[in-house]
Amino acid sequence: MQIVARVNQTKYEAFQWRYELSIPNKLALAIGIAGLTGLSAQMRILLPWSPVPVTGQTFAVLLAGVLLGRRWGGISLAIYAGLGAAGLPWFSSWSGGVGYLAGPTGGYIIGFILAALFLGYFTDTYIRSRSFFSMLVLMLFANFVLIYVPGLFQLGLWLKAIKGEPVTFTTLLTMGAIPFIPGDIAKAVLAAAIARGITPKTAYNGEVDKGKWASWRIP
After folding, report:
1. Predicted confidence (pLDDT) per residue in 32-89, tens digit
2. Which H or E run contains 138?
3. In order of start, what are the domains of the chain with their CATH numbers?
4. Which site among 18, 28, 105, 207 is 20 to 30 Å from 214 CA-CA?
């Protein structure tokens, strides 16, 4: 019991420390997560029928909001997108430049920012969001709605510009969504399990459900 109590106290202290950090220190952490996202982008599998590769980025993105919290998770991915657009070669295949963001995968990168902001908000605002099943649902929504929707939208525009005519919705899903679903579900399950293990189940910043979440929380 003492070990469990000590682990819980350590998690609380770590997240309270993260929440109370100065802006320069938070910025340093955000740059670190952006770098981790850049490294995970190099783990890729090319698909012969699609300009969108399978990468490890979404795993880093799903944890960015949990690790950095409200606003700063999104800021870390905005740094990733901004510095990459400026020419830093940390997009997939060590690419960089504004042309990459205008390409077939640029919409997914914009979705990364939205997903991290969304997950950071819930992590810092609701204790009940830190259970495994709650976090899994949030991560699946972030992945399949906040990342996929802008990703597919830009992919469709890019394909229309290349082909000179709109592509069918089925073709769009085949190129930009369906091949990635199994891997993204697996990454979300793993990320939710990690989030469940590292987040405290006590309030560290005045969460809105402080003192009342435990009676109806999802395990």
Report:
1. 999 999 999 999 999 998 999 999 999 999 999 999 998 999 999 999 999 999 999 9
2. helix 132-141
3. 12-198 (1.10.1760.20)
4. 18
